[in-house]
C-alpha cells in the first residue's frame, strides 16, 4: 500500500518558463546594457526611428505597474543618464507609454526631439516630460489635455 516512490515525477524545474519567455525586455542580453542600477537597466532601443540617441530604462523584473516611489526613482535615473547621453542636443524627452509595444513590462523611452525623426508625429501626440539641457528646466506636455502654454482662464469649448 505504499506508492510514495513515484512522487518525484512531474517535479522537474530546471527548465523554467524563462526559456520561451516572449517578453522582449526580459530577453535583452547583458551585452546591450549601457548602465545597470540596483533595480533597473538602461539600454539603447533596438529601433532608433531616425534619432541620434534613443534610450530605454526598464525594471529588472517583469512588472506591469510600480509604486509611485519606484516610478520617481526611474525618472530620476533616466533624467540623470539622459543628461549625458543627450548632451549633443538642446532638449530631449521622456515619453509616457501610450504607444508602448510592451505594456506588460514597466519601462520608459527617452529620445531627442529631432523634427526629422520618423516618429516625430507620434512624439507630438505623446504625453511627455521635456528636459532642457541648457537651463535644466523640465516641462510636461499633455497633448490630449493642453498645449505647451496652459490657459486656465480661457476655455475654447
Ligand atoms: Zn518582461
Tell me what the structure shows.
It is built from two helices and seven strands. It has 157 residues and is of the alpha+beta class. It has a single domain, classed as HIT family, subunit A, CATH 3.30.428.10. The chain has a seven-stranded antiparallel β-sheet, with helices on one face. The longest helix has 18 residues, at 68-85. Zinc ion binds at residues 23, 25-26, 62, 105.
Summarize the helices and strands and which ones pair or pack.
Layout: E1 33-36, E2 40-44, E3 54-59, H1 68-85, E4 91-95, E5 107-112, H2 120-125, E6 128-132, E7 138-141
Antiparallel strand pairs: 1-2, 2-3, 3-5, 4-5, 4-6, 6-7
Question: Quick gist of this model?
Answer:
By secondary structure, the protein is α+β, with helices and mostly antiparallel strands. The chain has helices at 68-85, 120-125, and strands spanning 33-36, 40-44, 54-59, 91-95, 107-112, 128-132, 138-141.
Amino acid at each position: 500500500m505504499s506508492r510514495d516512490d513515484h512522487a518525484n515525477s512531474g517535479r522537474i524545474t530546471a527548465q523554467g518558463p524563462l526559456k520561451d519567455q516572449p517578453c522582449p525586455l526580459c530577453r535583452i542580453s547583458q551585452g546591450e546594457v549601457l548602465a545597470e542600477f540596483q533595480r533597473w537597466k538602461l539600454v539603447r532601443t533596438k529601433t532608433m526611428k531616425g534619432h541620434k540617441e534613443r534610450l530605454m530604462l526598464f525594471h529588472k523584473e517583469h512588472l506591469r505597474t510600480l509604486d509611485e516611489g519606484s516610478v520617481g526613482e526611474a525618472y530620476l535615473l533616466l533624467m540623470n543618464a539622459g543628461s549625458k547621453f543627450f548632451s549633443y542636443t538642446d532638449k530631449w524627452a521622456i515619453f509616457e507609454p501610450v504607444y508602448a509595444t510592451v505594456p506588460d513590462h514597466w519601462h520608459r523611452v527617452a529620445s531627442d526631439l529631432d523634427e526629422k525623426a520618423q516618429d516625430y508625429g507620434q512624439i507630438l501626440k505623446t504625453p511627455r516630460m521635456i528636459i532642457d539641457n541648457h537651463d535644466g528646466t523640465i516641462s510636461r506636455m499633455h497633448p490630449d489635455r493642453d498645449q505647451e502654454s496652459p490657459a486656465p482662464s480661457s476655455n475654447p469649448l
